[in-house]
Amino acid sequence: MSKKVLILCTGNSCRSIIAEALINKKLQGIQAYSSGVNPSGKVNPNAKKVLETHQAWREDYHSKEINKVKDIHFDLVVTVCDNAKESCPTFNGATKVIHIGFEDPDGKEYEEFEKTYQEIDKILLTKIKEELSMSMNKNVFKTTQGVNINFTGVVAKEQIIKMVQNCSTGACECMSDATKKKITNMEVEGKDGDVELKLSGDISKEEIEKALAKSKVLNP
């Protein structure tokens, strides 16, 4: 079951929208929502533009007041502006509320929205994973047929399938050509949260661990 996070701001037009989109794009196993304590009712055009530029925009993202999401049980609430921190409503006792402030890019040039995007990506997403103890675990072990990798935690089966497809089409940059030539078959099994990748061929555990560390699919 996905963890649910609410990003709370004042106008719900810039920072919280960017954060909501980034979490939903990059953090498997976490579903993000956003709202405002005094919502503007519209998404800032530059906030939408920066999300479109990074392929993170969805048409259902919109500015809304908190009562639109009040019936959802959140595992974590994050305020991203001081006003929202001071005006944050009371949630049930099981909901943790934290504050991570970001400068408001509203009214500034597009470059400031790109800066906000990068800051949220680097700071907020890392903190959310820590707070929810959400991480991907990789167990690599040698078999008689080759090497198996068991992925658990915050991992989607589709994520591993995409990684395999990249290797098959030559789009993969994490694995050396010599290692690719050794692999005779790649098979993905399991489900979200518990995925197994079976690699057949005369390959070592060490070279697969090295490739996983470089994977842009696993380490966006």
How would you summarize this macromolecular structure in one to three sentences?
With 220 residues, this protein is an alpha/beta fold. It is 35% helix and 25% strand.
Structure description:
The strands form 2 sheets. This protein has a 4-stranded parallel beta sheet with strand order 2-1-3-4. It has a 4-stranded antiparallel beta sheet with strand order 5-6-8-7. About 35% of the residues lie in helices and about 25% in strands. The protein has about 220 residues and is an alpha/beta fold. It has 2 domains: about 5-130, 3-Layer(aba) Sandwich (Rossmann fold); about 135-215, Gyrase A, domain 2, CATH 3.30.1360. The protein is elongated. The protein has helices at about 15-25, 45-55, 80-85, 110-130, 155-170, 175-180, 205-215, and strands spanning about 5-10, 30-35, 75-80, 95-100, 135-140, 145-155, 185-190, 195-200.
